[in-house]
Amino acid sequence: MNSEKGHIHPVTHITNEMVKAFLEMGFDVAAGPELEDEYHNFDALNFPKDHPARDMQDTFWLKDIPKLLRTQTSNVQIRYMEKNKPPFKIIVPGKVFRNEATDRTHEVQFYQLEGLAVGEDVSMANLKYYLNSFLRKIFGEDVKTQFRPGYFPFVEPGVEIDLECFRCKGSGCSTCSHSGWIEVLGAGMVHPNVLRNVGIDPEKYQGFAFGVGIDRIAVLKYGVDDIRLFYNGDLRLVNQF
Ligand SMILES: [Zn+2]
To answer: Ligand 1 center to residue 213 CA distance, Å?
Structure first.
């Protein structure tokens, strides 16, 4: 009998690698619902009432019940903090959904890995250490990163983390839009409002949070130039891994 061998999907493969990197640094893995309410996906995360992300154009809302498909894995931050007392360090790999047009770098469904650490004396320096260590584990010891200010409602201050373009090594090319850098992560210190919303005293505890697109890391690591290739079921792609 002639049977073909199965393969691990590249997105599964990179997810396992990313989870392993954080487990080695003492993080626990948490999970939560993909079908979520507005409170856990937006309100508790300090999104203003009129924030555009809540719009029908960006979020899949269900018709007959007041639920949505989560737009980020950050809902699990809230659910985890509602049930657990600090200190803790968790990661949340999972599926998220956005109601938007698809192109080379966007899909309506994709994977994110969320991170959250809360405790006494947790600082931006800790965040930087963990994220740099993570990126080195995935992309190699000589990877270069830059942290620059960014805005997300649930962190203050917020940062965006770029990786030096692996193709042109910083000199500028079409992959990095000629900037020499590729954005890979959003992060920051957990906003005091978010801690208050789950009953954690922001005077006593601080936290950092981050989110990274798993597909985005897979695209960069494997040099696949269209994210949609991961999901169209074409075995010619999957069989290469
Ligand atoms: Zn480049």
So the answer is: 19
> What domain range is 80 assigned to?
10-142+199-231
Predicted pLDDT of residue 195? 98
Residue 2 has a pLDDT of 63
User: What pLDDT score does 166 carry?
Assistant: 82
Spatial contact of 188 and 221, defined as CB atoms under 8 Å apart = no
User: Which residue stretches of the chain have pLDDT < 70?
Assistant: 1-2, 57, 233, 235, 238, 241
Ligand 1 centroid to Cα of residue 85, in Å, is 43
Three-state SS for 8? Answer: coil
CA–centroid distance, 94 to ligand 1, in Å, is 29
Asked if residue 4 is part of any domain, the answer here is no
CB 113 within 8 A of CB 16: no
Ligand 1 (ion): which residues have CB within 5 A? 165, 167-168, 173, 175-176
Tell me what pLDDT residue 7 has. Answer: 76
Helix (DSSP H) and strand (DSSP E) numbers for the chain = 7, 9
Domain presence at residue 218: yes
CA distances from 136 to 11, 85, 88, 174, 200 (A): 19, 30, 23, 24, 32
Q: 145 C-alpha to center of ligand 1: Å?
A: 14
Residue 152, domain member (yes or no) = no
Q: How many domains does the chain have?
A: 1
CA 210–ligand 1 middle distance (angstroms): 24
Within a domain: 171: no
Distance 236 CA to ligand 1 centre (A): 27
CATH number at residue 116: 3.30.930.10
